[in-house]
Specification:
By secondary structure, the chain is of the alpha+beta class. A 3-stranded antiparallel sheet has the order 2-1-3. The chain has one domain. The two termini are 23 Å apart.
């Protein structure tokens, strides 16, 4: 189950929800959650990879890719937000849990 954490960009003031943990939406819908979150390049790259894997393995590769992606996408997305300058902006308990999950001291 995914856990959400609020992130805020200090210069622009924009807030986004970051996530960590297993992504059920990515498990059931593949790379479409990346599209809905505005992560367009990840969506395009993942969608192309899934199509290619599915074509060469009669769909089995696409299913395996979806399962693997469900385990890694939330952390990947939130890490990308942190790299773009977003900082944690949530309750102390939530931020502590997120920092442990991301290996941030």
């Amino acid at each position: 189950m995914a856990t959400s954490v609020r992130l805020k960009h200090p210069q622009t003031g924009l807030s986004r929800q970051g996530f960590y943990g297993f992504s059920w939406t990515s498990f059931f819908f593949g790379f479409f959650p990346a599209l809905f979150r505005g992560d367009y390049m990840t969506f395009i790259g993942g969608f192309v990879i899934q199509i290619i894997l599915g074509a060469f393995t009669f769909g089995l590769g696409a299913i395996i890719a979806s399962i693997v992606w469900a385990f890694i996408y939330n952390k990947y997305y939130t890490t990308k937000l942190l790299e773009r300058g977003y900082v944690f902006d949530d309750s102390e308990q939530t931020v502590t849990g997120a920092k442990l999950a991301f290996g941030i001291a």
